[in-house]
Amino acid sequence: MNVPFLDLKAINQACREQLIQAMTDVLDSGWYIQGQKLNEFEKKFAEYCGTEFCLGVANGLDALTLTLRAWKTMGKLKSGDEVIVPANTYIASILAITENDLVPVLVEPNADTFNLCPENVRRAITPRTRVLLPVHLYGQLADMENLMEISSDHNLLVLEDSAQSHGAQIDGRKSGSWGDASGFSFYPGKNLGALGDAGAITTSDPELYEVLKALRNYGSHEKYKNIFQGVNSRLDEIQAAILSVKLGFLDEQTKHRQKIASAYLDNIKNNAITLPVVVSPEQHVWHLFVIRSSRRQELQRFLMDNGIQTLIHYPIPPHQQQAYPGLNNLELPVTERIHNEVLSLPMGPSLSVEEAAYVAQVCNRFMSKD
Ligand SMILES: *Cc1c(COP(=O)(O)O)cnc(C)c1O
Predict the structure, then answer these.
(1) Residues 6+ apart with CB under 8 A from 45
(2) Which residues have CB under 8 Å from 252's CB, separation 6+?
(3) Is the CB of 88 under 6 A from ligand 1?
(4) 231 alpha carbon to ligand 1 midpoint, in Å?
(5) Interatomic CA distance for residues 266 and 281, integer angstroms
(6) Ligand 1 within 6 A of CB of 176
(7) pLDDT at residue 370, as a whole number
(8) Does the Cβ of 60 fall within 6 Å of ligand 1?
(9) Closest-lying ligand 1 atom to the alpha carbon of residue 198
(10) Which of 46, 67, 130, 286 could form a disulfide with 257 if both were Cys (CB 3.0 to 4.6 A apart)?
(11) What integer pLDDT is reported at residue 367 of this predicted model?
(12) What single-letter DSSP state applies at residue 278?
């Protein structure tokens, strides 16, 4: 049996007719940027997340970068302020900080959940800390109850990185509605994915919303009148129309991901493999199913030899990247071990339960002595 890591084509084929209709509507409307399709999607996605506002932008990195930039524009942040971020995140979270001339303070995650550890966050706070940037990594919400308490104790802004956690919730409160603002990515492989690059910011702060609305469009609310030095980071009508269609399938697809995850969790039994820890089932939308093994390379090869494609998220932690020489001498043993051991199994709405059972079976045969 061949099991691909993620079959994007199959996922999009499942709503082919509706996507063709949505794209045709945009083609025939004669209006391609900042129009009705964007307004519709922003309204639907804000409602989905439980926030007052949503702003479409060009991609997930811009969603994070522009939010920090807006806070600088509003006088809430200044160059050199510190932003606390998990050390094991994807590079985009760090780039958004340094792009704004802010200082990333890398904090070791909880080794079980891969998410920000509240005790480590408290220890990392200095008089210059202004922002917490929790990343809901692999689809599981960070410990937002405790992190929000820390933020109110220390008067910090909270920017959630929700690029991997569309629809994840704690007690009905969704990813993107906990912090002062949140950045989402709709990169094709994300749980809600466009057919190209796309992103969004959610917030319930009307002032932030107004600033961001201008910043993403040349710093302009009114054509040819520029109140800020903005950028061009807009969400195309065609992608907004596609996302509105796909949002209608998201909850169903999340349930499927949860079913696949249960199949893995119930059936993989091998002491060379550490399974992911689930804090509560609703909290996890399984963007990725990430196991750990001290024999990762052999395990990946064994799975590959049996037709199973796996990936590593991520092989090199941000502090060891060539792009950040200033961070290279940090010692972050928990993060480093995570990066040496993690392996992502096939996961997605097009993966069948039979395929998941096969993956579990092969995992269980790894290293057996027969
Ligand atoms: C994908 C991702 C981003 C960036 O999104 P893009 O749309 O690719 O710019 C940011 N943070 C995390 C955690 C991501 O996984």
Answers:
(1) 54, 184, 200, 202, 243, 247
(2) 349
(3) no
(4) 19
(5) 14
(6) no
(7) 45
(8) yes
(9) 7
(10) 286
(11) 86
(12) P
Q: 187 CB less than 6 Å from ligand 1?
A: yes
Give the whole-angstrom CA distance, residue 187 versus residue 200: 11
User: What is the residue type of 306?
Assistant: N
**In this predicted structure, what is the pLDDT of residue 37?**
98
Q: Is the CB of 185 inside a 6 Å radius of any atom of ligand 1?
A: yes
CB 140 within 8 A of CB 284: yes
Residues of the chain with pLDDT under 50: 369-370
The CA 128 to ligand 1 mean position distance, Å, reads 26
d(CA 312, CA 295): 13
Q: Determine phi and psi for 244, rounding to 5 degrees.
A: -60, -40
The total number of residues shown for the chain amounts to 370
Interatomic CA distance for residues 152 and 118, integer angstroms = 13
Nearest CA owner, ligand 1 atom 12: 163
Residue among 107, 30, 104 at smallest CA distance from 64 = 104
**251 backbone dihedrals φ, ψ, rounded to 5°:** -65, -40
Residue 368's pLDDT is 58
What is the DSSP track for 308-351?
Answer: B--B-S-SS-GGGSTT-GGGTT---HHHHHHHHHEEEEP-STT-
Per-residue b or e along 275-310, where b marks 16 or more CB atoms closer than 10 Å to that residue's CB: bbebbeebbbbbbbbbbbbeebeebbebbeebebeb
Q: What angle, rounded to 10 degrees, do the helices at 237-267 and 353-365 form?
A: 50
Cα separation, 286 vs 261, in Å, equals 7
Spatial strand order in the sheet of 103-107: 53-57, 199-203, 181-185, 157-161, 129-132, 82-86, 103-107
Distance CA 113, CA 92 (A): 20
Q: Which residue, by CA, sits nearest to atom 7 of ligand 1?
A: 60
pLDDT tens-digit map of 164-176? 999 999 999 999 9
State the distance from the centre of ligand 1 to the C-alpha of 29, rounded, in angstroms: 31
What is the pTM for the complete model shown?
A: 0.97
**DSSP assignment of 138-160:** GGB---HHHHHHHHHHHT-EEEE
CA of 288 to the centre of ligand 1 (A): 13
